[in-house]
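help with these tokens:
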Amino acid sequence: MWPGNCVRSDRATTVVATDLNRRHDPMPSSPAFHHPLPLIGLQAALRPIVRARLRSTRGDSATGQLARALAWQWVASKWPRLLPSAAAMASDHFTRSSPGQQLVAATHPDGSGWTLSVAFHERQGARTWITHADVRQTSGVHTLHLHTDCTAIVDAPLVVAPPRLLGSWVERLQLVDGPVAVLGEARPVGNPEQLAQFLAHVRSPDRRLPIIALANRPDTRFFGVDPAGLATAVRGLAHVACLAPDVADEVAVQLGSRLGVVPGAARIYGAGHAITASPQYHPLIRNHHASDNSAARAGMFRRVLCQRICALSVRDRSERPGSVCLRQAQAQRDL
């Protein structure tokens, strides 16, 4: 069922230690991180990449502890030099730096949550990437925030993708978007009941994430993109729905042809705007290589959609979840 929670696997998150020998260039500073070496400030040159805010259905302490443990596993897989001891992980404040990398972790002053901030300099590039992960409990509900920024470098290629930590949170925690579960897989919409649930979700004022609606061509399973791969790529940032051809026709009747789903293309129903608002808030993204069923073309379209979803996530979201942690880090340095 569309709004129901999906049974998740209990398999442990695999941690693969990767040797990231960062070059010994000084890491550019940002409003979040201050390297002990003299650096050029780049506060005005930060570019927002990803913004995510998710809510858990569970308010028990185990949920917050698991979210925090998954964040440390993510650090271990990418920056093993920054990983602290078990005792340091449980401390209220921890900082560590290595060439081109820096980490700050701290408990909120009121004890309501915990924040992890990581900055690293590209090994073969000129950018610095900064990610903030925040786990907090308010009114018995856990909310998870994840923000990623990078320094804006003109004429330098940029590959945009959500941090893997976001996927780990989706897979291991029971997260919801309004009444609907946040999943890492595409939902099928192929019968009247699923259609009703899909339309209710599209129209819901409680929805905070966009919905990517795909439709296959009659007598084929070609959606223009691999739905499973797309759902994995945008998990935590968007829902993915696969509409049967007859269902796609009915969606056009219910919502109007300007908001219909076209086979081989992707309709993105934006969040925060009524379905009756301008169609510009619910764009149709066409696959210009839809006639080519190759995996390479499908992968190209998936990257286009992923970049579009990441861009949508940063609109009108200026809160920085790492601010509590970073204020504490600054106060600690000032002592």
